[in-house]
Amino acid sequence: MANTSEEIHTGEEALNASSSRVTSQPTTEGTGKGEISQDEATAPQLHDLFQLTVKLPHHPKSMQIMVSTSEQVQDIRQSVIELPDTFQYTCFHLEHNHTRISDFVELSDVPGITPDSELILVEDPYTEKEARQHLLRVRELIGAAGPRIDLVNGINAGLCLFDGINVEEGNDTKKPSTEGPQPMANFDFDAPASLDQFLPKITDTQAPKCVKSIALSPWNPPPHHLRQKGHLIYVQVTTLEGEQFHVTSHVSGFYVNRSSSNKFDPAPKPAPKDFFAHSLITLLGLISPSFNKEFRALQEWNAKKEALVTFAPTNAIPAAPWLVPGPDTKYYNHQSDVARPQETYLIAGTENVDSLRDFNEEFQSTRELHRETVQERVFRERLLSKLFADYTDAAVRGVVLIAKGEVAPLNPTEGRDAQIYVYNNIFFSYGADGVGTFASEGGDEAARVATGKDVMGVKYVNGLDIPGLSTPGTVIVDYLGRRLVAQSIVPGIFRPREEGQSQIDYGGVEGKDVVATTESFVPLFEKMSQAMRVKKHNVWDKEGKKHELVASVETKGLLGTDGRKYVLDLYRTTPLDVDFLEKHWKGAEGEEAEKGYPHRMAVLRPELVESFWKTKMREYVSAEMVKRKVAKEEEQKKADEVKANSGKEDEAKSEDAEKQPEEEAQEKKPEEPDNSTGIDISGFEFSLNPDVFSGQQPETEEEKAQMEKDEKDVRDACNFLLTMAIPRLISDLAEGEVGSPMDGHSLSRLMHKRGINVRYLGNIASLADEEGTKLGSIKTLAVQEMISRACKHILNAMLRGLPGPLVPFCVSHFLNCLLGAGHNPNPTVTPDEGLWKLYHDADFGFEKLTIEGLRARIEKEVGRRYRHSLQENWISGIKHLQMLREIALKFGLQMKIRHYEFGSPKPSQVAAKVNSEASPSTNGNPKGKSGSKKKSPVASIHEVPVPKGPSTTFDPEDIMNVVPVVKDSSSKSLLAEEALEAGRMSLIQDHKEMGQELLLESLSLHEQIYGVLHPEVARVYNTLSMLYYQLDEKTAAVELARKAVIVSERTLGIDSAETLLNYLNLGLFEHANGSTKAALAYIKHALGFWRIIYGQAHPDSVTTMNNVAVMLQALKYYTDSRKWFEASLAVCESIFGKQSPHTATLYFQLAQALALDHDSKGAVNRMRDAYNVFHAKLGPDDRNTKEAESWLDQLTQNAVLLAKQAKDIQERKKRGFSMAPHVTMSTRPQPQVGQGSVTPHGVAESTTSASGLGRMDSRSIDELIKFIEGSEPTAPKKKPARANPKRRGGATGSGPKK
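RE: above sequence
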């Protein structure tokens, strides 16, 4: 496996990896749905791969491509289009034995194909569409296409900073370590967060230009009589030599015509300029002498970039950073390009029909594809993943156009919230209660939540993938204060039914008044409900008639006119959170309602229902075990009686009878997968009725008894949430069993994984507060999350219906009232008179917002939604930058990068100067505070004019853009997840080779199904890098960790918590691989973002600081290393206190670092501190205490000796003696939020507990003393494994984090 990194698909190859490059693999037993069976070994093995020759019409005349027999011809075609030698071909077909091959057949289906066969590439006549696409492709290839200004993606979407970090290449172990500065030199631990972290690196070299301009000619479109002759479009080219050419795109190719700017003559030019070529690239090479040279230079320039950095994501929306450079900086680049406005036509044509798609039909027919073999499943899941991405993109574009008022509603006479739209075959409606459906549940608030739950339900059902059950494509988009739901149009949903017939075929028709129960839906809904733990139950319609339903009455089944069965309205798949509603829901109207929870749609999460189901199953198994034990005891009793009563002659028989049940039991044992000694759980049934407490009226006594039992089960589930799920999360965080969240997103993700709703943030904050400083970070985050979510609701209400140009005024004033109060206690809106006059009928209520009014509204919202009373001085506890980030991310704001002044105004001469001086670096640039007078490219960005009069923290110009916030319903790929899990299991069972094969297989599947740039692929890169690190495949671990960083930066965000953790792990693996300076550069970059995401002193930063200290020790920067240990200790003391074993472990490590730094007095003091704490907390007999005592004695005895030998050491240094100690402690990987590290045996290890703080030294005292004295170090002896590693800090092995 030494060349693992070479085996991993990269770049274009992975993007276009065919579904056929999948090998089958043996997995666990069983061949049910979702498992890969042994019979599927028909998938291509390596021997199915062979080299195919493709004959070309032009230079280089032929090419070789590696293919497999089950690859589709279109995959070969794609390879031709992407390879450098054959860029120019876009319009062609392939022939074999002079017979045209269809693009959509597998290679194995081509008659007579063998490894020796040759395919011939034949150039096709162009159509107008082909000609447009060829021109687009050529513009991209020759670097003439500038950055597109995209409706959906926002500014700098998909930004990657990784390639801008200054990293020293090479292996540090081979060169003297103290040569040159190290990245952490002069690191300022107290520096404020610098927003310059978000600035991309400006490259010194510009991309070579191949032409001055290439665009559509003003003579377009061709007149009718010329269309008859095969003219398609006209192109205008200005070469680097300054010559202008007009080119005709003809069905046969491209030629230079006689037209000029003021004369139209599209006939071919006479010789010697009668240039003609099938490809425009070839033609450009003929008309411009310098084109070919510059084109080659451009390809070389592009090849230097990391492939993953340059690709556009195909299956995921690229992450838009919330901070972007302003228009007055050199980072901002908007250039003149005649062809930019023409791109819409080039992509979609004049009629725009190219972009119209029947999404619903595509979704359903893709789901109906075969899925028997691995090949078919890969192909199907790959298509689905692409389809979900295309649909999400189209839906978001529709929402933006609706918000701008560019799409007319189907029902313009109705109120705004009731209006519906159809755009690009997608149906849009507002996530508000426009027609009063949710009037009794909380109105608009309830409708908004219902749409969110519906998307979650659709996602869940998509994940179940039940054959025959269809779901509409569903996406929710929050944009400028409104929520829109985009659904693919189910055939027949708008068709009026005959009198007496309803639209719905299963479930509640008009609310719950009429209930439909079409039998054909029952088997499908049963499968769905079984997976969701939904109970079959009775409901009653308005006439009191009983109906038995297998799903909630709110879940509807509809038979489309295409004959397919659709499931709609999946917002009530779990029961209501009854206990919560009884306490906090005060009705929909009246004074009480204002104080109560805003809506009645508070339901339990599916994760909680699943967790509760598992608890019930454990209880069932335990009860069965007890029954079995009792039965066995009775059997034994009877056997004893028989034995006593019978004569000696029967003894032999009775012994046999006794042995028999034991033997039977032993025979059964190996068959069972778990240790429950063969308990049969087929008799276990437990599910919840989602319609309890929602107005159902049972009639008979039996029905009432059943309803009471159902209600009790639901109450038990609610109780489980309060008494088990929440306290368990708090205790796991307090014990350091899981990685601590860094921001609101990671906290709410962690809560959701545990089945805890966000409405319990108040409980989390209160319980964390009870734990004291240990969970101070959790309390801070919970309060910050409650406030930012309250702000989102208030801001949404203010922006709803506000015209677009007024949005920046409203948002900046809101932020001034919330975060700029310290700078200007009376912020006001400076109106733009022209806009105010133009939009005279708009709601200018936001102008009246005051600081006191906003604070009161936030306190009220937090009280209503989270049952939490903010402290009186809560505003002083806000971390301004972190709060700004949370609000920006939740709302989709893109703000200008500049120094925002949150404190009291400073004298004007220092106004608006960025804290780049305070910042330790820009993008990992290790220059620090250099004495150079040359102006840095960063400094100039922030020289903004000082405003006159009372300034405010935020101006309308600071709001650069608002991007839509999207929730989609695409589910994970079952196939890729199975392969990953199978690989993990193989490694746990010590089948190393098979495990590695399965892991690579899983990686290949992820890349094929999702495309390389996708959050799921980033996560699998991270997981695999961890596993390879454990398997000691360090080069492969580094390669995968780099990819994890780049992909997560581009798809999750440059400052997402996951990206930051990926950087920290990359640093760790680089260090293990010998590139410690590179490791430090990456960690420094991550620490810069940590200050922005969380601020200072996060619990998990103790681990990172320790890692840095260890790395600096490895490079022999002992003084710097000591500083990092001291900083780590300071954070640890602030969280756990001075008397904690965690802190004592760090005293122990710091004592060693001080000894290495020749501070023997400090070393003795710190070791004494460690000894005292261990003695007090763990007792005199604990191994930690004894070891600390032993070290203390030795260090004390040597302190005097060291003083005497100080002169000796000086002399040794003069003689050039080199000191080479061993690395003191080991580094360890950073866990993902909410997970402890996992050792190779699957045992979770702590993050912030002592084991997370690095190890105590494994060397003997004598070795360290000898080093300090300057004598040669001896090879360390192997010591027996320590007992009790958890409590004493000896990490038993750094394991992977999932």
